[in-house]
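queue> pop job 88
queue> type: inverse folding (structure -> sequence)
queue> payload:
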């Protein structure tokens, strides 16, 4: 069968991600996640993941784009909804109307590559969060918090404690989380209903870019080649994905039992 342009595009997007990840999502996870009785749980966890991704990027902006004594200036995530990221100019500008407090933040923020990429990522993750909530509301699924899987903490426990090693490790972890999300969206989409299939496929472009942005930033911040750390976290990530998990989550391992 001849490939469509869309199929070819996504194959090209996913190829480097498959190469980057040290293992594919186990078939047992797909088999459980595709079952209708788990759909509500996965959508709630997906919404939580989008919000956590935005919060993690916000934390990076706060820590690495503001001097320590000015970090209190950066407000909550609503701040980013009134920003426009212009990556081609490597700066972040406000819209036409800014509050005095927002202007102070703009004046203090260090305009660097991390800021530009993280602001764009935060805006997209918040948009995805709202999209998931809309889908849930239409299906009568109540939004709630869930216990987290051991995935993110299992990676973060290996972060080094000195700089710039700490930020390099966090950025590499961000790359793996985004890459795994992208891979799972692609693997799970064909097993879902038409609306969710289209939605998950629509996320592939942004998730693939997030992975590459994180990896590029890690290389920029490091004072040495990051290949060894990338391989280290790739091995840890694969261990978590292939190990048994008692609960099903978007980044959980093989379903236990």
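queue> result:
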């Amino acid at each position: 069968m001849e490939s469509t342009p869309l199929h070819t595009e996504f194959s090209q997007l996913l190829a480097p991600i498959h190469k980057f990840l040290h293992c594919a999502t186990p078939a047992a996870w797909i088999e459980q996640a595709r079952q209708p009785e788990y759909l509500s749980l996965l959508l709630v966890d997906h919404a939580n993941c989008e919000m956590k991704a935005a919060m993690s990027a916000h934390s990076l902006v706060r820590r690495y784009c503001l001097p320590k004594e000015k970090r209190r200036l950066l407000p909550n995530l609503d701040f980013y909804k009134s920003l426009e990221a212009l990556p081609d100019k490597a700066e972040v500008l406000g819209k036409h109307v800014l509050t005095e407090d927002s202007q102070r933040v703009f004046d203090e923020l260090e305009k660097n590559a991390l800021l530009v990429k993280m602001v764009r990522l935060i805006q997209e993750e918040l948009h995805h969060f709202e999209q998931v909530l809309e889908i849930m509301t239409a299906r009568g699924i109540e939004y709630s918090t869930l216990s987290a899987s051991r995935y993110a903490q299992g990676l973060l426990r290996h972060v080094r404690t000195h700089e710039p090693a700490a930020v390099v490790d966090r950025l590499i972890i961000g790359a793996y989380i985004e890459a795994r999300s992208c891979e799972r969206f692609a693997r799970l989409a064909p097993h879902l209903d038409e609306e969710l299939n289209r939605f998950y496929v629509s996320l592939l472009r942004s998730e693939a870019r997030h992975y590459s942005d994180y990896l590029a930033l890690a290389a920029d911040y490091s004072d040495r080649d990051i290949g060894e750390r990338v391989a280290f976290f790739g091995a840890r990530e694969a261990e978590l994905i292939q190990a048994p998990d008692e609960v099903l989550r978007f980044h959980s391992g093989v379903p236990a039992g």
